[in-house]
Design brief:
Rossmann fold; alpha/beta; 485 residues; metal ion binding; magnesium; 13 helices; Phosphofructokinase family; nine-stranded mixed beta sheet; single chain; 31% helix
Amino acid sequence: MAIDRRATFGSFGVVADAADDGDNIIHCPTLRNELAARPSPFIAHDYFGGGFVSDRDRVCLQSIKFAGERSAGSRSQDNLQARWCQLVLREARTRVSEDTLPPQGYLHLPDYAMRSGPREIIYHNPSDTHIAICTVGGICPGLNDVVRALVHKALDYGVPESNVMGIRYGFRGFTDRQHRPVQLTRRMVEEIHLEGGTVLGTSRALPVVSEIVKRLDLWKIDILFIVGGRGGNAAAEAITRECDSKHVPCCVVAVPKSIDNDLLLIDKTFGFETAVEEAQKAILAAKVEASSAYQGIGIVKLMGRQSGFITVSAALASGIVDAVLIPEVKFTLDGEKGLFAYLERIMQEKGHCVLCVAEGAGQDMITDQAPKTDLAGRPELMDVGLWLKRQFKARFKNADIKYIEPTCMIRSIPTTAGDRVYCKMLAHGAVHGAFAGFTGITVGLVNTHYCYLPIPLIIQAPRRVEARGELWNRLRSSIGQPNFE
């Protein structure tokens, strides 16, 4: 068995190819050479009257032509291709020596992506297709929505209910004899979207890829859906390659999950809007506490290990935050331009202040906590919120400081209506992609259109808030925050 990947031009494992018609398009790998083509079961009614998507449909990645680097947005997600190259090279410099990197011009992202959606020709016989669904990593609003929509669309294709299984507790469920896979029927998943978390359970256990592929082969799984973040998508790519090397004809399709909104190329990840909305409650509580106290200071720590999108967006939406700290922008506490001096001015003017900080901010400044690692071997973040509280206590002797850390409250709730629709569209696109024979792909909203992307493109580096970009500038201009350097 050989996955059709075609010749690549790019670097760091990027799959990005020119299509046969000469368009500069991101090519998605398939198993079509190993599978039998057949008409879609939806042809009779033209997919409910909406028609089908062609592999030759194109989504333009870049909708704006900037006059130059000084144009607003040229350093942000609006300049998708340049920003992708910049972040990938930045990440690569942390892993390999500079002299081994290719010139920046060599790292190229094509102009177009392939549209997500139903195809007229499919490559699995629905009545004989076996499907497995797995949720991995931390919980996030929308996981149950995605599982439900995956099951519903698979059943719409004609897959028997007895052929759809859910893997328990992430990758652990492939080998854990105490937690066998469960059958996912329409009735079982009917109302799970009304609850937070994941009905399948999840874990951060590292995947044993060889054992997972053995189970896929043993259980005759034709399609595996993995709902996960950068780590989950990286595992999906590793499983894809292992299936290829072991000649296991299983299409592996990921649905990108990241409450931090830190996946490359994708406009937004599911659960992000819900998280921003729920964070308003914590920010408002901090405002009420701070404004009700003598010299009150409210500190809210939000999610954002490497990227500050939730913190910036929540602060911008609230309109009541005085200062924001994120991992992408360094800050100092002391000096005329430091955080302390700025907050002192705010306190003199208003009598209180509210600070929002992303969990990954200021990690290089914390020296009074011992480093730890999590189950996946990643360095655990030191608690910047408690560290800031101690620093403020030492500086503002008479201040009444309230610290709020609402992470679990935000992660565990059901989705808002907008996120619920988004989850459904992503899941439907994943099912369509799998039946179209694609493998090693993820589905996401790119430049406002649903696309298929080869997994390596989105896991090369974390997407970050650009310190000189439009989003950070909007936040600073909105609240009047200076540079704390």
